[in-house]
Amino acid sequence: MNKYPMAPESDVVVSCRVRLARNYADIPFYTKMSEENAKETISRALKSLQSANINGMYRLFPMSELSDTERRMLVEKHLISLDLISNKEKAAALISTGETVSIMINEEDHIRIQGLLPGLQLEKAAQLAFHADDILSKNAPIAFDSKWGYLTACPTNAGTGLRASALVHLPAITVTKQMGAVIQAFGKIGFTVRGLYGEGTEAEGSLYQLSNQTAMGRSEEDVIRSLIDACQQVAEQERAARKSLIERDQDAFIDKMMRSVGILLNARLLDEKEFMRLMSDVRLAAGVGVINAPIAAIDELIQRMQPASLSSLAEASLTGRDLMLLRASEVRSSLSSLIKDSDTLFSEEIK
Amino acid sequence: MMCDECGVRPATIHLTTFADGEKKEKNLCATCLTKYKMNLPAMDLTNLAGILGGFIEKALSGKKEEDDTAYSAVCESCGLDYKQFKRNGMLGCADCYKAFREPLEEMLSRMHGNAQHVGRIPGGMNSQVSLRLQIDKLKQQLARAISEEEYEKAAVLRDQIRNLQAELKVKTEVGEGSAHE
Ligand SMILES: [Zn+2]
Ligand SMILES: [Zn+2]
After folding, report:
1. Are B130 and B150 within one domain?
2. Which of A126, A319, B12, B101 could form a disulfide linkage to A18, CB 3.0–4.6 angstroms apart?
3. Distance from CA of B166 to the nearest CA of A (A)
């Protein structure tokens, strides 16, 4: 009945991902690969899925057969990387029906498996990725060395070929200027923090990607477990910072959140940057209960308002002003229905 | 990922700098890192989460350059020249790891200390790792259930843990040991 189930820790953790890099030992890596080789890796992956009888659960997307908008939409959904698009002549993706597993073929490595889930569910995301890995590497000559582990096109990924990552929303930590300390603390335990949107100074929308730096010398479970711990800790820290902001000046806090809601409900032109900044306030407001809207619905709206997804909605390749107009009108209608029956708007109790 | 500066060579290092409390990030190739560092003499390199680690530091000091021109090898399987690898950071095939074993050994040890893979191996490890992660999670839930005096729930969790442990034991005995030792 609930269209928007609540994912664990989703007030802070937007989504999580486990990626595995794999290569066939008997086929050259991407930079030395012929067209024949490229076809061979795709057909091997397909055959593996077929022999495990799960090919029906996946859909094949040959990059060269998609439109530019379709390709970029997959990037906006985090299902494929920009690198896969730049390899579009040779590359393909196999995406599971629920969009929780994506297998990129002929990206930097022959195979890159991703398990992707909302909230903090890294164990499950890992399970999904390992399951696909078991199927794809069964009876296949996978490039592996007993000392160096899985061999990858770039030696920096050799070892487990694992990248575990979490996308976290840290508006209160950002505004209380604790982000530098968080980045350093993560660095000490081997994780990198980077802003998701915008480059340089401040991450637009206070969204950050946490991921492991290296792939050798630590087992998959060790890396995943310490990322889970680190995410739980940073989530606690973010909640404490939110609480202290509210305690410092509740009226000012609610005022700021509701002004952002007000702009989103009334704007006629919305660029991506402003949209991300305002939606960060909406997400925070929902997280602490200032407004009553499901966080999953807010995240879905954020993703739907990205350029390619909007273009797909308009069935035309939109740019500049057209994008801003459509974004504003979509946000007005979607957001008003999301928080229409919000009864906690001016609630006394904020968690 | 391509270098943010030149956009031509693949980025081999992820650089994070702090200036006036502001964080800046860049993905750079070794060549551009050298230039970047010259332009910003005051840049703090302590946060350099170098993917190639000490490799770059040596390149910066110029020492490594000499060592590398001395080393030359070609991978017979794919034809990749070691110098080409040095330029773009990408290997041509699995056999390159054999052909360039010596410098790769040096580079990987510099990155990881003792470079030794720990973890899954190919060919039906059947998700031992995820089994262990599941067991871990259930154990956490069990501890919480006990502390909250939800004993019925605890009993269910205990059974689930026991089942998974049995499954894991079978898998380990079937010879799906992990790669290290
Ligand atoms: Zn460059
Ligand atoms: Zn080679």
Report:
1. yes
2. A126
3. 18
